[in-house]
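Dear colleague,

Thank you for sharing your sequence with our group. We've completed the structure prediction you requested, and as agreed, I am returning the results in plain text so they can be pasted directly into your records. Please verify that the sequence below matches your submission; if there's any discrepancy, let me know and we will rerun it promptly.
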Amino acid sequence: MTETNSRRSFLQRSALGVAGLSVANLALVEDAVGSGIPAVPAVAPYAAKPLKPSTLSMNGISRRTMEEHYKLYVGYVNKANEILEALKTVDHSKANQTFSPLRALKVELSFAVGGIKNHEIYFDHLGGNGGVPTGTLLEQINRDFGSYEAWERDFRATGLAARGWVWLAYDLDRGALFNYLGDAQNTFPIWNAVPVAALDTYEHAYFIDYATDRKTYIDAFMKNLDWNAVEARFAAVPRKP
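Please find the predicted structure tokens below.
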């Protein structure tokens, strides 16, 4: 057995789980072991998800708004990938909490990635027929807010108060849903809270259709909400009994 084949056999049996990697990633790990560099499997860049066709023919949120909004989302995807590339060559020796290239890149990466994830939730649950959720999601809303009507009243009011986003999220620690407010793409995360719905309240989400009339935009958002998509996200969340 050659040295290369011997090394491949060892890696495939090791606790690193290399056997589950692609051939390309296995080669990367082999090269790293041979050079003494810690093995880091290749990670695919962010990729923009297409809009659902139903989001381009909604009542109250125009096709033009959605197409322009989608361009903004693609911009976040591109910038996130650009920042990830820049981080590969950043000088770690100059890291500093006041200012450093590393700090700047990582702060802005959180903004770009927030923009990606927030918009993917938002786009995914538009294009529906509104109404009221069903099943376990409705049961959870009734338990945590008292009633669906109380939840919707709070959700709409939070939308008027937010400068950027509203998230309906399930707190894994409390075992409860809550309408969280965020003023920027990267000011959500409440640790261990999983968002199941997202309302974009930045002006770009509604200005073409409603100018500064955010209240009517929120009306349109609710009428086009796809509760099936929200329920699917909620069903995937591990919940307390």
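Summary note from our side: The chain is about 50% helix and 10% strand.

Kind regards,
the structure core
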